[in-house]
Write a structure and sequence with these properties.
Blueprint lengths: L2 E3 L25 E4 L7 E8 L20 E10 L4 E2 L14 E2 L1 E2 L14 E2 L13 E10 L12 H8 L3 E11 L5
Antiparallel strand pairs: 1-2, 2-5, 3-4, 3-9, 4-6, 7-8, 9-10
Length: 182
């Protein structure tokens, strides 16, 4: 069975502070997987927050625009020989040889977009203070191609398009994180 686990994350558990932008060191957690299906030539990994309160930012509510997720991390072209990523692998240049980080962006906000909307690699959890705990969904894709062929300036919507017809199997791990209000 294809599965994604972590020595520091528990399914439906709480994200340890260390891996958050809000309270920690903003490093990606270690991840490991097993049971990749036959024919797997590479992996891709995403971590998204589907619980962002877009209305509080003066934006249309979730479900009205494509990619209403806050994208915390996308790594692609991870060689099929790799079965884990160490802590901190989400930093620029820290992935295994051949693998690439994608630019993280929730929506195309245009000029004046905050730095964290167009940053390569891991962006730790930082939900608004007082908001409910958010879900952080890690999804690992087993792919039938060695590369998605994405350009260095590709974004999440390009990633989703590139996955079409290449996904053999997926597995996921969901954790929660919230910041208590004052």
């Amino acid at each position: 069975m294809f599965s994604l686990t972590s020595p520091v994350l528990v399914e439906q558990g709480t994200m340890p502070d260390k891996y958050t932008l809000a309270k920690g060191e903003n490093v990606s957690p270690p991840l490991q997987w097993s049971g990749a299906p036959e024919g797997t030539r590479s992996f891709a990994l995403s971590n998204v927050d589907p619980d962002v309160p877009w209305g509080s930012f003066g934006l249309p509510p979730a479900g009205t625009l494509f990619a209403d997720l806050f994208v915390h991390w996308v790594a692609h072209d991870i060689p099929a020989s790799v079965a884990s990523l160490p802590e901190g692998a989400g930093a620029p240049g820290a992935l295994p040889q051949g693998a690439q980080n994608l630019n993280n962006t929730a929506r195309d906000f245009g000029e004046g977009t905050p730095f964290w909307q167009h940053r390569e690699g891991w962006i730790g959890c930082a939900p608004p203070a007082g908001d409910k705990a958010h879900r952080y969904v890690f999804t690992l894709y087993a792919l039938n191609e060695a590369s998605l062929g994405l350009s260095p300036d590709a974004h999440y919507s390009d990633f989703i398009e590139a996955l079409k017809g290449k996904v053999i199997a997926t597995t996921s791990l969901t954790v929660y994180f919230g910041v208590k209000g004052e």
